[in-house]
């Protein structure tokens, strides 16, 4: 693991997720850019001092030199965004598999470069778009892509958070500091951080690409450089339309990601804060509330495979993350990502950065329509 | 009453709403453009044959000739849109007050003409933007306009319906027929019908005008002329931003109008299908669920005045409509609309048609931003 | 109407309910035991002074003397409980139909006497067990009694209110005063007032009688004579079991009546505060949320007939009450109660008082089982 | 670990829970009474063959003989109920700490014997009443026991499940088989299995003992010996009253444990299937929805300590279990259970078995009141 030392939120989540199913062991780490803090973190985690490294390069080099059955098998990157690319690139170069927190890199260019590396290197690469790993998101995707509700007509996805609502919030945590810093976060703030989740969810559930969009970004809080709020109109490859809203200045909100997909024959609605319910409304019928559970025979096989408990025993965010880790471990074991769909590929990472670039470009140009396909030539 | 005969949905709602509080009596009507059907409707409603009129002009003329304590006091217009203007204009000219189903008229020009008539005539004019008459919408407005949550930052309003989802639906009811017919419905379908409700709610709760917008309308169902779906990005006079989605082709949906208003210090969310709950999230505090009820001392006076029952005894759509009728009757009685806020004014009617015009213009011009103020000179 | 003057909650509800559908007209009333207050109420309601009576006997006598097409057709009784019997008895004797707020009378003996009168008199008698008149309660009854979910196994019904939580509440309203006064309320407080609603709902939805019960009543608030809280275990004629809880001292609660009926093949759950949703869980299937609406083809005919609006336009407590009034008016018109099921019969009234008597007897005897059938011989 | 091999539901949950926080390592196990299956399970879990034992006695003996820094530190018992006592007793005797799935033992007598052993042995003993380990249950307990809502008046706890609804279900899983077998499950079926959870929750949240009860148990499904459904009226030490319903034959239900605690000044309601919301209704105020989250400053310290994520990132059943494991590990580390409240003590185990015994005795005696205190002398 690289990153995830003291004060990191996501590092601890990754570690719990990796540990949950007993298939993955944390064997080495470089937890902080400050070697002393990194050492402390390693010790707290019970790691041997010899495998708590002061720098990721040292870690990659040393581990690569260990015997095959001794060395770490993959690297989890949980650093701020600006380090995703150099670390991932180096790890892949050394022959390690890489599971990286999203976004894939600092910007579109880096992500395309990373894609080249992924395509040429032997290692697997995965991106943690966690929300796609919830069982009922998998169910939604299975239903919509199989056409069970007919074609997609409209998608409404909204992601309000409130943790950056005030100027004071900007310095309240290391998280907040680097996320609002273009050097570390990238060219977008809110849209790079959570807009990409909303975008991924929309394309992942429908199986249809967003082809063009028209965006209006804002920075509400004084002193901030990057966007902290915005909304997007979009059109999809099949003619569907949609809206995407993402905001980090909605005071009082937690993490209220929600999506509705309206199709020819009915709609699906899912809300991250109550993830074990998927509301299905078919035309002329009572609404149905699908639940997650190993015993829910009505779920698609792909959805049930991501449940650990029977219906009524709620699973949550850490389990969704754990689905990704388990899939990634199994993909490594089988040398293929083919049947392990809960983590995102580098191609999905590229799409995410295309989305961010298009949003920024449209917003800068009076919300003119921008075609995502025009951004890469 | 003009309109509201057999097959009319909204006519019966208006009548129940008018009757509910025992302050209004239906004394005359012209219920159909087909005199025979109109007569039948009048008889069913227990109206004297002499006061069931074959044409609205006859009604206005005859009633105007009656003694002051005999004649009807106001006209409720519940016809298709294209008749709103001529009937309202004629009624006002004859000295009657007018309560008209929304929208005010077929288009912006007619509405402006109607405004002139309203401004010069002695009679009162009211528009039934029903959703604004729910007690908890009044509460939301009271809180936001008083600044209890600080300034408005973002508004998300969404209005999905499914009753026009298929080509077959277009002819399934008289309702559907005239609503999809530009001659009777106006220049917009979905946005004239329900987009105007969403727009009204956004401005009404916040007390802030939408100043410019950028829209993307669609017609999903083959053979239709008017829009049946669309979405809008908007900006408000105070710098707030928002999205508005309206659709009548969301198969499986009923009448799921919902609005979230995110402010500096917290947010409010209201959903029409569960109208007796208003969710208030203040930063750093537990969410609160405000309820409607005459005994809810925590509600603003203006909100409680629109409740008839104690909390826990649900009121609904008809009661919201009845609030409008009761307010209109009382405004007539007191000769002033000043303290009767549950019905919309002709100015709000004009704003609604400005909104529709701007949406159409933007959508036709590749979703360029259109300033509402530029549409009237 | 008898009762329902100033300070009465339920009188106004009855009047709105009666007016809603335009089929009933308030023509005469005796609104208060204080003639002056009664006169004032009549004037406010726009009633002719000649038909605002100082005493119900005068009203019955005078109205009975009017021509058939002039006199009132039925009497609505909305007084405190102790007057139900004498007024109903007198009205039936004079040949009037009677629609009476529940409970039927002050106690079991009076109710049985009233039943004799009803059985021998020509007039119709109806009891307003309002909750049974909600469309989705009718749906639940239709489904369960048709055996769609197999046999009933368990019923859980709970009715917490908080309006009598404190000693101070006892005097806070005329309502609270007479409800806690055995002379006016009867031998039970909470169970006579709302326990009877819960009991009626349980038997009405299932179509199965409660045959025996075991109860534990309490009086939490100092200075009160009657029960203000309690719970019951019960057994039903088909072998099903259940619990019933009713309380008026649950501080913070409104009117949270809720019932779950668990059957061989699935369960139904309904909650009065969100009355337009009925949750159906069938074994091995996603939960379904049935909605009320004239356009909900999946509802039983008997349920749809009690809707006025399409799904998504919420109806509530007043509409449920109005269903009773409309049914009662139609029953009078057709001279039969056979197909008008939304109001309760005198037999259901007797069952309610049997229930109360059994609850009191059991509670007094260390919660021994009491068979309802043993209480009448 | 003892038990938890193939086909075990709860064994896998315990292992995930133990692994989640990275503070506990599975080092030895005896996973099945069939040595071959046990070996297979150990291998699948990556355990050394030398520490996968064919019998728990062998395990205890062998491990006890290992060096202190090598041997296992505590034993997790996840077998059917009849093995809890012998294994726990043996483990404690050998000086191991014991964390045992509930109930503590097969019956009251065994549990009292176990208590003697716990009291005399040096080891710690913990019982996994999982639901008490949810953060918002801890919050509820903190609020109620601190008297923030005044005294407790009424408790309604209900636990409907449907997995044993039919005769066919009895043999559908090893789980179902032993749970319906008195030799392995104990003298009660449903009440031993889930009634004890409901009982524990009621006493744990309120901090008040149930002193007497009156019960009505049933066996709905033919061929079953033990109860599969029942309900209880109870009284508490402070004069509060309540009802407890538990059932495993409610077809269509999952694991819908829910509790409402009504106090002098307001009520709290929690539902296990949506565990991250706690509804607080204070008299005269809007309902509040408290959420779980490390960042929810309004939560009691004891509640926040059991959160791993910020509000809006749902945690669930496995995390609740993990709270218990983490607390138990820390209690071992600090040699004291004093500040680790998420697991239950042997005294709580005794109370659970007292409850079951009282329920059975009351139900057998026509639901007479049974005082729990009279069962031990």
UniProtKB/TrEMBL annotation, chains A, B, C, D:
Domain GFO/IDH/MocA-like oxidoreductase: 137-268
SUPFAM superfamilies (UniProt xref): Glyceraldehyde-3-phosphate dehydrogenase-like, C-terminal domain (SSF55347), NAD(P)-binding Rossmann-fold domains (SSF51735)
Gfo/Idh/MocA-like oxidoreductase N-terminal domain location: 20-126
GO molecular function, one term: nucleotide binding
Annotated coiled-coil segments of the chain: none
UniProt xrefs under Pfam families: GFO_IDH_MocA, GFO_IDH_MocA_C3
Position of the signal peptide: none
Superkingdom classification of source: Bacteria
Protein name, UniProt field: Gfo/Idh/MocA family oxidoreductase
The organism of origin for this protein: Exilibacterium tricleocarpae
